[in-house]
Amino acid sequence: MGRQRGLQLGSELTRLAMPLLVLALTGSPGAAGVVAGARAVAFLPVQLPAGVWVDRWDRRRTLITAQSLQAAVSALLAALILTGQAQI
């Protein structure tokens, strides 16, 4: 259960940090709001069906795959920021 709380904490921190990152990069509160809103709009219709599917899959493999994809996307975002190529 401690691991799950750690994953939830990381997800919540990402949810908080992404609009702040957009604000820092663009200086636009509107763009930060659009990013936060887009995440919420995309997350809501996907959450329920994904929960049903994940319950039928191997939990270990699903967790490893999801965490690997999240790490790859985070590395890509960091590379884009460091090279000045990040865009909304």
From TrEMBL:
Keywords: Cell membrane, Membrane, Transmembrane, Transmembrane helix
Transmembrane domains' residue ranges: 20-44, 64-83
Protein localization: Cell membrane
Membrane topology: Multi-pass membrane protein
Principal localisation: membrane
Protein name: MFS transporter
Organism: Planomonospora corallina
